[in-house]
Automatic annotation (TrEMBL), chains A, B:
Protein name stated in the entry: Glucose-fructose oxidoreductase
EC number(s) given by UniProt: 1.1.99.28
Parts of the chain that traverse the membrane: none
Keywords: Oxidoreductase
Location of the Gfo/Idh/MocA-like oxidoreductase N-terminal domain: 39-162
Lineage of origin: Bacteria, Pseudomonadati, Pseudomonadota, Alphaproteobacteria, Sphingomonadales
Chain ranges of the Gfo/Idh/MocA-like oxidoreductase C-terminal domain: 197-368
Gene Ontology terms, MF aspect: glucose-fructose oxidoreductase activity; nucleotide binding
Length: 372, 372
């Protein structure tokens, strides 16, 4: 298949729920209103912000890094120098609300521990800013609903950092799965996990809201939802945590879950803090589509079995990274007044299922989402 | 790894529960007492018996085909001619019990629909014959227990047709998994399924006792048990069957299940009559072992990821087929008065879990095996 065919099919299939995903410079120029770059403030200068997000602004066509928020003055000094951010655009958490008075900041990107997502997203919306918030959106359905309400009230956009939706192989997998490339999807296996190192906020429930599911298992869950385009009807989960392991005093290690979707698709998902997984497989009557690694920062690979042939699927190189694609998508949505394809409602939908997964594992029974 | 190393490790690890698996002509000659071949009667001349089992006797060193049992005279005539079986050694179901008087028959291999396994296994034991019975062993735990009791009372062997235990890649996977090749096993994914054609006994509960789980899902279950060497503590299952599909009026289509083992290993298993799967993956902290196809009649392939390298594992060609290995194993056990590595107790262990899987799916809750 040629790139043209791929793009054409994606256009026809309309990736995303009710919103076209603009990809490539032509679309950006169109959406970006002649190249205006919206200003981002990054809130929380941890490893993901500084190593994955901030270096990608140089790829962006509609987004630029203009402000930093951190509780550590040394980090502000260091990254302000590295990215040419003026001292006036550096904030502590204490004076965070002063971003209201800074017109250079259009969008606030929350990259804090999960338990702080709701508070800072809501404060950003109240300060009149659009919000990008890392996943998981928050630590409860109630918090997600409060965040959506705050952004609506402020008439500002709210988007969740589901970067895989801007990654070419994942977009291809969505198109192939929903387009029935191996027939109508029957089963999805989605597996995500890594070996958690001790002594970090992810392992402290007060900061993280939960264990592997909140952190890496959410990739399995979100993939099951975006590959099907459906919401699960029932959730069945089993947790397995060695409570004598000092890492898992307050959060779960492994939690595996099965989702049953209205069309009959079953998703069989792994979430683990004690083994390495990064893959999904979409099974249809005529074969399967494998992605491994599926949702890594880079290096995605896809293999398709159809009929009796098993072949790698290689997409053209040189496309915009998922990180830059994610950043620019919100900018373009702001400029064109469109709803992001992964708005707050998407984070809320995941959180509803996450709460059902925890409940199912706790109660040892299948949970129906309409009664969750 | 050389063949020598492989065999040496298998010897050291002692594949199977308390019984060494003899492989290769030297072991056979030793066990076989100078080359005596035991006589098999095949009961049920369906596709599996005639296409997979009967053609493999020519590979056997301790087994030979000497008798046939069928309700269809044309089949008896045809296969008796093809395999040189005398007319006196051909039986209908009506005169099945006369095998008692035929000293040429040492072993009776039951390849009938599942609901007939118990009856014919018990009648064969009462006729003084050793029994090989296809899997699933029967359609209930109670039947399995009755079969074991009948063979014990008759002082005859009872073995279940778990051919994968005699297949080189599966033996390798057991050795690697239990030997910690990628560290202690954390998660096993086992997926088996195929697209069931309509109008066959497998889809009639009165004959089959159940749907995909009884037929192909048992491979996922049995693999989870033989790869861990443990019995599950809890079982959580979800069934998904389109009852409007005429194939699934009386049996289940898909039933997925999670098993939690005492060491903490989780097995995440697929069983499907509506999509094609034949694989398992063993995940440890240092990588994974993939087998796909894992339990097919032939063509097994294995891939191992360890550290940062992903490599195929290719075993030496020309080994005895799993079918011949299975047939000869029971003959050798009879000759040496040893318990088969997949005796009736192995079929019973699977059936206990199968009943728990159905119960979990029916009741929508996790079932503890000690209360099952």
């Amino acid at each position: 298949m040629t790139l043209l065919e791929t793009n054409r099919r994606e256009m026809l299939l309309g990736i995303g729920a009710g919103a076209a995903l603009s990809v490539g410079s032509a679309a950006v120029a169109q959406a970006g209103g002649g190249g205006r770059k919206l200003g981002y403030a990054i809130v929380g200068l941890g490893s993901y912000a500084t190593k994955q997000i901030m270096p990608r602004f140089k790829e962006c066509t509609s987004s630029q890094l203009v402000a930093l928020v951190s509780g550590t003055p040394e980090k502000l000094t260091r990254y302000a120098a590295e990215y040419g951010v003026p001292a006036a655009n550096c904030y502590s958490y204490k004076d965070f609300d002063r971003i209201r008075d800074n017109p250079a900041i259009d969008i606030v990107y929350i990259v804090l521990p999960n338990s702080m997502h709701a508070e800072y997203s809501i404060r950003a919306a109240r300060a009149g800013k659009h919000v990008m918030c890392e996943k998981p959106m928050a630590v409860s359905v109630a918090e997600c609903e409060a965040m959506i309400a705050a952004s609506r009230k402020a008439n500002r956009k709210l988007m969740i950092g589901y970067r895989s939706r801007f990654e070419p192989y994942n977009r291809e997998a969505i198109a192939l799965a929903r387009g029935g490339h191996v027939g109508p999807t029957k089963i999805i296996n989605a597996e995500h996990g890594f070996t958690a190192k001790p002594d970090q906020w992810r392992l402290d429930r007060a900061m993280s809201g939960g264990g592997s599911l909140m952190d890496i298992g959410i990739y399995s869950l979100n993939a099951a939802r975006y590959l099907t385009g459906e919401e699960p009807m029932t959730v069945t989960a089993v947790e397995s945590t060695d409570k004598s392991d000092p890492r898992f005093k307050t959060v779960e290690d492994r939690i595996d879950f099965m989702l049953k979707f209205p069309s009959g698709i079953i998703a069989n998902c792994v979430s683990s803090y004690n083994s390495n997984h990064n893959r999904y497989r979409i099974v249809g009557p005529n074969g399967y589509i494998d992605a491994e690694p599926a949702t890594a920062y880079e290096g995605q690979r896809m293999t398709i079995r159809k009929g009796d042939a098993t072949m790698p699927r290689v997409l053209p190189a040189g496309q915009k990274s998922q990180f830059a694609g994610q950043l620019d998508h919100l900018s373009e949505c702001v400029l064109a007044d469109r709803q992001p394809i992964v708005a707050g409602e998407e984070g809320l939908a995941d959180m509803r299922v996450i709460e059902a997964i925890y409940r199912s594992a706790r109660e040892g029974r299948t949970v129906r989402m309409d009664r969750a």
